[in-house]
Rop-like family nitrogen fixation protein (Bradyrhizobium ontarionense), 66 residues
Amino acid sequence: MSDLDTMKAEIKKLSARAMQAKMDLHDLSEELPINWDQILPTAQKAHEAFAELEKKRADLKKLETA
């Protein structure tokens, strides 16, 4: 598998993880005020997942243009 294919596979996994984090945050918001103390940890997980996904997409773009 090439570096490009490997990176695309990683992005696919990161995207799925980011979408799950988004849904976890959404589900939490619908249940408020139950589990209100989980807002920050859940939001942090979503933030980290999307930040990692964005970085990997930028890396892919660099690889594709090189």
